[in-house]
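Quick one - first record:
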Amino acid sequence: MESQERDEKNKKEERNDDHIVAEENTRDSVTPVLDIKKKRYNLLIIICALCLGGAVLLIGGRISEQFGLWGYRVQSPITVMKYHSYRNDDSGIKFRYTDEYVIDIDAQNRYGDDYIAGIHLNADQRTGCDIRYNAVGINFAKTDQEISDAIYNDLGKNVKGLSEFHSKRIAIDREDAVQVDFLLVDPLGSTLHVTQVIASHDGQAYLIACGSGEAQYKFFSHDFQLLLDSFSWIK
């Protein structure tokens, strides 16, 4: 009888020991998982902080570019950009551009009688913007779709490899204008990305055309947008 009681007591103690060991093993297996989750959470915080820091740099650069005389282009290394203003009293226009570009007034009259002025990179005359008188204006009483269709059809007759066409109504110095973006193939077979804006003022239509090679366009698009945003009429 006493032997049976001892056997039952020993079995009970073994079960308790097994339970304790199981609990310890469970705690040991949970702890690393929690540590891994904690490390992943901390890493996520670091990544978000880096992304936020990058956004702040970009926002700061754009604010400086839009409102300041001196701005910062976010690249490696960071460079200071100076901005110039162009004014043409005869044509009644003015705009701003960065010092990476040179102004071209076509003193030798190589670009036609409708040419007013333009800017292009020092190293590449194919990248930049032209401002011209335009023979045909836009009837802004038409719908946006009607305007878009008319411009697309006209470009399709004169532009090789027209694709990726988009249009939208915008304002130039608080007056209606239309902007179109598209790709074309130049005579050398290269694909160009072009942004054109057609605007009118005091009965005269104007064409602003900016462009570069397709691969480089994204880098220069902020410079083109600076010119468009600053473009205004001389009252």
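second record:
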Amino acid sequence: MSAESPVRLLGALSLQAQTVSEKIHRNAGLPPLPAWANAAAILAHLDDPLGSCLLRVKWGGQESQRRHLVEKTWSRLKQSGLVWEEKKSRRLATLALNEVVHNGFACSQCHGRGLILMREPAKLCRACGRVMDPPEETCWYCDGPWRVFVVERRRTCRTCQGRGVRPALSGRQCAHYLGVAESNWRRTWAQRYRMVLGVLLNCEVRALQQVIRETKGA
């Protein structure tokens, strides 16, 4: 499933989803339900409560469900036998959950543009407009006088390295959050992190696939 599919899916849910509740409202002569109520009705009937909660938080923006999402995630990991040292395992689950929830979204620094607009003072020649080096008193090209202007320059965003999307956490950042040495992270916890991440990603994909089927079948 492509990274753009959830965006298109939510657009389809907002505009086209037909649910039993909406049909009842329409037949009773009541006002139609809000668009998100249609999507929520579909999510409420998903087979996996964790997948439903994950979609609500990630694609529905329902931050009020995040606490429930954390608890459902922890319960699923215990059922799957993916719990080691409890304190570190809980932090590992939070780390993986944040990665899944924020994966694919625009960089918060450049808002997806990959570039940062910088406004800096610069000395420009009044006559020809060329940039002058600070030590010079007159223009090197036409010997004209200078004036200080504010110049706009675009620079590559350092946070996302110009990609425009939120970067994944580095091994050093993950190790620091977990409270272990970076070598310990690479040797032991990185593999565990990938296992937890895989559970959550598979859960999201299955939930999205069911939502698509429910939408098409409505």
